[in-house]
């Protein structure tokens, strides 16, 4: 099925949906940097989709990202056979991370389409912290998110994402632009997720679930710092760069 043209088109469509979500997140983050109180995370972006395009568009995004998650799940389990064993293991781990990234956004889209809102993770973290093992689990989760953020950063710095691209007859400037946008975008995402991870660890250490409220809280924490507005605008530009890269990724990704 993964080799069929239909599946390839669906997967590329899912990447376009992923790009749109990140472009909306970048727009919301820029608004927060300029003093707006918008919810600057993927849930906020998805709620904007409902407000502007209707629930049907949200279901389309959810379906596209679900296809992406299933595709990467297959790659994580049995894929990347064309590369050497050591690199194959790394590629499968990358696919596993992408399963989580795509799957979470798809889940949020379905949740918002059904319920009309996303409660975020505060109530979830509060429930976990109430357990005897909660503090350890939330702390471990935060550390894992920071580790993923570090992985995303090296993905940008080392340009390892280019291994998944097939430029074919693309021009030199198109290749260069795609790679530069990918570098900026992956590093920007690493900063965003790294902030979320650090806040999650703080929530575990201080036993305060309100501090682990996801990307929205992370960006609003950033904007509250000295020179936070310009920093958040720069981060918004980086997330926008990732959104544009994801559009190009939809064109050049090996599927």
UniProtKB/TrEMBL annotation:
Protein name: DUF1206 domain-containing protein
Record-linked InterPro entries: DUF1206 (IPR009597)
Transmembrane segments: 9-34, 54-73, 93-113, 133-153, 184-207, 227-248
Source organism, top-level taxon: Bacteria
Keywords in alphabetical order: Membrane, Transmembrane, Transmembrane helix
Organism field: Amycolatopsis alba DSM 44262
Pfam families: DUF1206 (PF06724)
Domain DUF1206: 14-78, 184-253
